[in-house]
Design a protein that fits this description.
With 441 residues, the protein is of the alpha+beta class. The protein has helices spanning 8-15, 35-40, 46-54, 63-80, 122-144, 163-169, 173-176, 187-202, 250-346, 353-377, 380-384, 397-412, 435-440, and strands spanning 19-24, 29-33, 82-90, 96-108, 111-120, 148-153, 158-161, 207-209, 216-218, 224-236, 239-248, 393-395, 431-433. Strands 6, 7, 8, 9, 10 and 11 form a 6-stranded antiparallel β-sheet that branches. The chain has a 5-stranded antiparallel β-sheet with strand order 2-1-5-4-3, sandwiched between helices. A two-stranded antiparallel sheet has the order 12-13. A hairpin with a 5-residue loop joins strand 9 and strand 10.
Length: 441
């Protein structure tokens, strides 16, 4: 169509950064396609592009839809002089992209032509898609956030209010939009908030409010509740906006109050326990002292008991010795008496009277010895105190011999079978002794 390839229109046609072509609707043929368009569809030349178009491969639609689209486009162009629409196109390699299709009707030398222009709008589509996706994500995040979000403009008026904030403040979004943010602040804090707000707008910076101090917000119906607020800011269309992230800390405050109450109670209990500990320690000390005293008393009692035990043992031994001595001392006189009585029974005649008298005298003497022995044994206290008296008397040699023969005679009466007692003595001299103690010995 362009006889002079160097003409202005030819240069403009070929270097336009879009697909540009002349299409003759009567014969359904592309008469000319610019170089950029051929490259955009990854073709070699216009003929390949025409064949690609004729085969219905240019659009990502079914053949029926393409015919209907072309028919509707041709009718709209004739009716309106032009048509502009978006469509998804295929390249020769199978790659797809979104394009803005513009068709204008032209009269060239009395013949009807369509000027077809296709601009790749993938980048715009992606940007729009991303913008829509980001907006949807932001809206989802904003509406479904589990924290209250209040956005105000540089005049301090509420321009946005998420769903969680509606639950926190009992206001609907429509009730607060365009209202001063002080609507959500208790009256006692509003004056200070005005100055804080002005200072923040002059020196905006992200910060946390309420940390380390008590901060309250106001619900619909004038019910205040403790909050913690984080502030952020951004600019849009030459205006400053403030984002307030509101956290209801009522539960945390109640928990802190409960912790403080428990701490105070714990301190009280700790003080009571400490007091009880000191009392217990004092009681332990008293008990320990008493125990020591008791142990000392027990030791004394033990010593006394040991002494008493020794005395008891000595007394037992003494009693044992007493029984042994008693059995021995009594046995001799009694044996003498028993044997004398037996012998007397043997002397039945008158001539035996001197013998009977002698044995009766032995019986008499033995009885006296028993009496003396009993008196000595019944005087244990005197024995222990060494108060037994010795009655010394001088015995001649003959008297001593008689005494020894009497004692021997008494001892013979207790001899066992096979035992023989003999008295062998030379001339005896006088002796000073206690006859009774000598016989006991």
């Amino acid at each position: 169509m362009f006889r002079d390839e160097n003409s202005f229109f030819a240069q403009l046609f070929n270097h336009t950064q879009s697909f540009v072509a002349l299409y003759k609707p009567g014969v359904n043929r592309f008469e000319q396609v610019n170089r950029f368009g051929i490259d955009m569809f990854e073709m070699q030349d216009a003929n390949q592009f025409s064949a690609f178009f004729d085969a219905g491969k240019l659009w990502s639609e079914s053949t029926e839809n393409i015919r209907q689209f072309l028919s509707d486009t041709e009718r709209s162009v004739r009716l309106n002089g032009q048509v502009e629409t978006e469509a998804r196109f295929n390249t020769n390699s199978g790659r797809t992209f979104w394009g803005l299709l513009r068709v204008d009707i032209l009269d060239i030398n009395g013949e009807e032509h369509f000027l077809v222009k296709i601009t790749n709008i993938d980048a715009l589509k992606n940007a729009a898609f991303n913008a829509i996706r980001d907006a949807q994500q932001f809206k989802a995040l904003f509406d479904n956030s589990t924290i209250g979000v209040v956005i105000t403009n540089d005049e301090g008026k509420i321009v946005n209010f998420n769903r969680y904030a509606e639950k926190q403040f009992d206001y609907t979004r429509e009730e607060v939009l365009g209202k001063e943010v002080e609507l959500l602040i208790p009256g006692s804090s509003r004056k200070k908030h005005h100055s804080d707000k002005a200072h923040f707008m002059q020196h905006p910076q992200n910060r946390v409010m309420g940390a380390g101090r008590d901060l309250f917000a106001l619900r619909k119906g004038n019910a205040a509740f403790p909050v913690e607020i984080s502030l952020s800011h951004y600019e849009a269309d030459g205006q400053h906006f403030v984002i307030a992230f509101v956290i209801d800390i009522s539960v945390r405050k109640k928990s802190e109050e409960l912790v403080l109450e428990q701490k105070a109670e714990l301190e009280t209990k700790s003080s009571e326990i400490e007091h009880m500990y000191f009392e217990l320690e004092k009681k332990v000390e008293d008990r320990t002292r008493m125990l020591k005293e008791t142990l000392v008393e027990l030791q004394c009692s033990k010593d006394e008991l040991r002494t008493a035990l020794v005395k008891e043992k000595e007394l037992g031994e003494l009693k044992s010795r007493f029984v042994t001595m008693a059995s021995h001392e009594f046995r001799t006189p009694l044996s003498t008496i028993l044997s004398s009585c037996y012998i007397i029974q043997q002397y039945t005649t008158t001539e035996d009277q001197p013998k009977r008298d002698r044995h009766l005298a032995k019986i008499h003497t033995s009885v006296q010895d028993l009496t003396f022995i009993l008196e000595d044994f019944l005087s244990l206290e005197k024995l222990e105190m060494g108060q037994v008296h010795v009655n010394f008397q001088l015995l001649s040699g003959s008297e001593l011999m008689v005494l020894l023969e009497d004692m021997l005679g008494e001892l013979k009466s207790i001899c066992k079978r096979g035992q023989i007692l003999q008295l062998t003595a030379g001339p005896l001299v006088a002796l000073s002794t206690d006859k009774q103690l000598l016989k006991n010995i």
